[in-house]
Give the backbone structure.
Amino acid sequence: MKHGLLIVLSGPSGVGKGTIYSRLLERIPDLIVSVSATTRKARNGEIEGKHYYFVNNEKFDSMVAAGELLEWTETVGNRYGTPRAPVLAELSKGNDVLLEIDVKGAVQIKRTYPECVTVFVLPPSEEELKRRLVGRGTESADQIADRLALAKKEIAEHEIFDHSIVNADIDKAVDDVIKIIEKEKRSKNIC
Ligand code: 5GP
């Protein structure tokens, strides 16, 4: 039976996993992306159905209650979840699916879908992570402090992931993830 690989890219906020994710999609155009549902408000330029499905708390509650999410978590004040049906449908068609989700969600998905491959993206240092979070200018000082405190806890747990890479150089980080995907596909006999 055909079956695709579920690749879960995770790591602390600000580590650059969004950039790695975009570069992976350019390098492996066949990868399928999953669009998450979130209760967070859309930022400037974000498009409904492309970046996220922006939903209210009631809608998110009903998705959770109906078992429509493969995993979900509350992080830094908002809820985020991966819609189950589209991901499972793509995997069963033999397509590889890439998720970019937070650490709690990645841990959850590994429990419910152990065949997935989890990749943790580490910053070169905590100072560099802070510099990146401040530099992107999308969060307030309080939100940055919250995200940094959470990042410390998440980094301490990175060994439970199948693989860890350091995002010091973006090209090298993307190459590292591609090597992991190729190796996992060979070992799981997915071509
Ligand atoms: P942001 O608000 O910056 O878009 O995302 C905040 C965090 O939520 C990021 O770490 C991102 O990876 C994570 N995230 C996005 N979608 C999902 C999802 O569907 N599930 C989980 N668990 N985390 C998500």
Q: What stands out?
A: The mean pLDDT is 94.
